[in-house]
Design goal:
This protein is an alpha+beta fold and 451 residues long. The protein contains 12 helices and 18 strands. Bound molecules: zinc ion (ZN).
Length: 451
């Protein structure tokens, strides 16, 4: 019977399946499924169809597209739970970040390349690997897994999504015992981790204006403030001298027992020799539970067009990561109030909201979490760690509200060391992919036994 497998059989079947998994992942990488506004929709739709095809081949018979008003469809499929068995919803996404060779890629981002045990290409890790992990864990059971399965592959994770309303109006559709979010990974290859906290993210734009029009800096400089220097003074108040965020009143959690070694972090970040780390407190809390603030864009004249003038207006976009359980609206307004309060010289400023996304804390005291930990530990043959993750996934909060009793397991094959998700030369490690496929399959098997 397919739906009762020993650990060894699962290891063996995953190994045998890997050549197909590698080929099919390469196939999916070729689709330029960028769902950002302004990008062509055909490749995104073609990718949705290709995802349906792959899942079907791997044993998910009842899989189809569901239209999401105003957005790209989700790929959805179901396998009924055997009597008394729990139901698991597996989540991944088929859209990717934009990429072009000129960004600094060594090779064409849309032409998969296998090198040194890794597969390179946009989406290789984030999150086409998640699609393949999901598909492969079903194939291992011959399409007849020991538990009920729902598969949800979203098409708008990397951009403004339209799924929220669908979830809120169809909560029964998402009913399950455990969500597996396969859109994450370990800090380093071979070092198994489950993500249990995610910070939220808020952002705003500040416009500074000081003059009606540009004027000659020789004739006017020295008395009238220019907008760019004013903006720089404002932005310089976001951190204190030690590099901690200086916005007053923000929620700031410290978390214990999560380990992230400084040398690993330095290596993962590509921090240059001799550059200091900023902020205080344990590295894990600076990265996963305390706020951090970044200026992500400035509109001002570029050096190539610079002339000797007082600049009349300048703008900056500011993004702030917030504590996992902070109220994003409150934190965003504290940031915006701070910007208004510190503006020097009565310059004219306007601050606009851009985004406010909640973080998430996964409860770790349920039986699903214990079972997932055991599966991951067995697959990697190493004790697991609990870690935080960088990206916020707003969907988690919405799914949690729709199905409050369900547990969340966040893992995947996107390692922090080399995967470079959202960056150039994105890649996934083939052995890591195999280990996560084993873990996900063991999880399904153990869940059945555990009940
Ligand atoms: Zn992702």
């Amino acid at each position: 019977m397919e739906n009762e497998l020993s650990d060894n059989e699962i290891f063996r079947k995953a190994r045998a399946l890997m050549p197909d998994v590698v080929e099919d992942l390469k196939h999916l990488i070729r689709y330029r499924s960028v769902a950002f506004p302004g990008y062509p929709s055909e490749p995104v739709k073609a990718m949705a169809d290709a995802t349906v095809e792959v899942l079907k081949q791997y044993g998910l018979q009842d899989v189809h597209l569901i239209d999401i008003p105003g957005g790209y469809p989700v790929v959805y499929g179901e396998i009924q739970a055997p009597l008394g068995a729990p139901t698991i919803m597996m989540y991944a996404h088929y859209d990717v970040q934009p990429a072009q060779r000129e960004d600094g890629w060594d090779t064409d981002p849309w032409m998969p390349l296998e090198k040194g045990g890794r597969i390179y290409g946009r989406g290789a890790a984030d999150d086409k690997s998640g699609i393949m992990i999901t598909a492969a864990s079903l194939k291992i059971f011959g399409g007849k897994p020991p538990v009920g399965i729902k598969v949800l592959i979203e098409g708008e994770e990397e951009t403004t999504g339209h799924l929220e309303e669908f979830i809120t109006s169809h909560p029964e559709f998402f009913k399950c015992d455990v969500f597996i979010i396969v859109d994450n990974g370990n800090l380093s290859v071979g070092d198994p981790a489950i993500i249990t906290i995610l910070r939220g993210e808020v952002s705003c734009i500040i416009d500074v204006q000081t003059l009606d029009h540009a004027v000659h800096s020789g004739s006017f400089g020295g008395a009238a403030p220019d907008a760019l220097v004013s903006l720089i003074r404002i932005l310089a108040t976001l951190h204190d001298a030690r590099g901690d965020v200086a916005v007053k009143g923000l929620r700031s959690d410290t978390i214990g027992n999560m380990e992230y070694r400084e040398e690993i972090y330095r290596q993962n970040a590509g921090l240059l020799e001799g550059v200091d780390l900023i902020g205080t407190g344990p590295l894990s809390s600076r990265l996963w539970s305390k706020p951090s603030v970044t200026v992500i864009g400035i509109d001002a004249p570029s050096i190539s067009t610079a002339s000797n003038i007082l600049i009349p207006r300048a703008s900056a976009k500011i993004s702030m990561r917030i504590s996992p359980d902070a109220d994003p609206h409150r934190e965003l307004h504290l940031l915006m109030d701070h910007l208004r309060a510190v503006a020097p010289w009565n310059v004219h400023i306007e601050v606009r909201e851009v985004s406010d996304n909640s973080g998430f804390i996964c409860p770790t005291d349920g039986s699903g979490f214990a079972t997932a930990s055991r599966a991951l530990e067995t697959a990697f043959k190493k004790p697991i760690r609990k870690i935080g993750a960088g990206g916020s996934i707003p969907l988690l909060r919405i799914l949690h509200n729709a199905v409050p009793k369900a547990e969340f397991i966040l893992w995947g094959a996107q390692d922090t060391s080399y995967s470079r998700i959202h960056g150039t030369d994105e890649s996934v490690d083939i052995h890591e992919l195999e280990r996560v496929i084993v873990a996900q399959s063991l999880f399904l098997q153990y869940l059945k036994k555990g009940r």
